[in-house]
Amino acid sequence: MAESTAPPSRPGRSVLSLGLSHLAARGPAVPVVVTVLLLCVPAGSAGPGAHPGVTPADVCSGVLVVWCAVRLLRRSPPRRATGRPAPRALTPLAVLVLGAPAAAFAVTTAASADPAASLPGFVRYLQLFVLVPGAVLLSLRDARDARLVCGAVVLLALIEGGVGVVQACTGTGASYQGEHVRAVGTFGALDVMGMATAVSYGLVTALACGLNPPQSTGRWLRPCALGCAVALVVPLALSYSRGAWIATASACLLLLALRGARTTVCALAAVLATGVVLVGGLGVATQELTQRARSITEVSDSPDRSVTDRYTLWGAAADIWRESPATGVGPKGFPEHRDSHAALELSSGSDTAGAGVPFQREPLLSPHNMYLLVLSEQGLVGTVALVGSWGALLVCGLRRLREARRDGFARRAVDCGAVATGLLVWQGVDFLYGDIGGPSTVLTALVLGVAAWWALSPDAGAETAGRRTARRLASVPSPDRSPAR
Description:
One of its GO terms (molecular function) is ligase activity. Its main location: membrane. This protein has a domain at 93-304 and 351-464. It contains 17 helices and four strands. The protein has helices at 13-25, 30-37, 56-73, 92-111, 115-139, 143-170, 192-211, 221-238, 242-259, 261-281, 286-294, 305-323, 334-338, 370-406, 411-430, 441-456, 466-475; strands at residues 174-176, 179-182, 350-354, 357-362. Strands 1-2 form a two-stranded antiparallel sheet. A two-stranded antiparallel sheet has the order 3-4. Helix 14 (370-406) runs parallel beside helix 16 (441-456).
């Protein structure tokens, strides 16, 4: 009997091989996951000689865009000897939705008074709203790739939220009312919205997955996802970000409403009961949270300083737009025109301190409203193109989610649609109180890419029509078989 020439098996070899093969199978989504997790790197760690505003996540997002461009240029026919699917090109609808903002950015930049000064803004807008979302759209091939990215977003939120809670408990966070208790995570005091954004994304993602668990997973996913969502409420509250609170509440209400009226009522009752116990009974951060929440609507009766500055900047942005209603003053043009249009009560800057940053005054370089920022800098041309692009993503995403819910066999893909829709609604509401800027902005571009994948990619609907496709393929005779005679 001939001896076997196979190498002796080693303990754990099969597990390692399985893990590596799974990672290789998810290859196109790995750069997206790496970009998300690189946001955990503290701000200012881009390396020696790097631009102060460039982060490791920015660098990785650029590599992702270049890699996707190379893959498209080297694209081969779908059926190859390796059996791996070739990267898809953008569909005509995706080209329209992503290309319209790019064309508008180019027009407003060329029409500005100083195109050279507006060029960095043009590149930034192109990166965040066209190139990176398009790269994510091309990188995600199916629902499993999208779930891998969603898991990375939740993991990032848990890490940043954990760091933020420690900062709030130990007094090592950013300054808030004279005390270093504001949770900012690894983003630092110069980007106080960074941790709130990451935690909000993770909370919405976890809630969407918990309410719509895919059938292919075990029973552990629902309680684990809902537990993560509940745990992330704490760092979100300690971030003292009013815009993130409102946006998260809006997105969560939408997800609950999509799930059903009974789920909505039960969830709201549980949240109300928990709030009464924590705030009313135990007195957890009662004074700070109550004062912060009330300051949202206080305008004339002893308003918060930040609220006054915000509304003053909104008025200045509207006045700037009236001077150039068609194309605005050009990207990055708001700071130059701010002082000539702002009221006298506008502060010279905002106080920043804590979390390793000494006290300093940060200039107010934006109106803290993305829609007014685009309107003032790029006029109606840029605003209609950009907001129209987001509206198209939301409409297409909701339509595909409705189709997935209507087909009972397609519940495996409903979680991806719920995540994409919830994150897009969160971003749309949050842009009413904030804009782009800081290290966390790359995460916004990645989230828009996930929403674009669900709304525009043919692969996102593959699971939706999975059974019908399987039946259609089964009815086609195999070319390797000859019909029975």
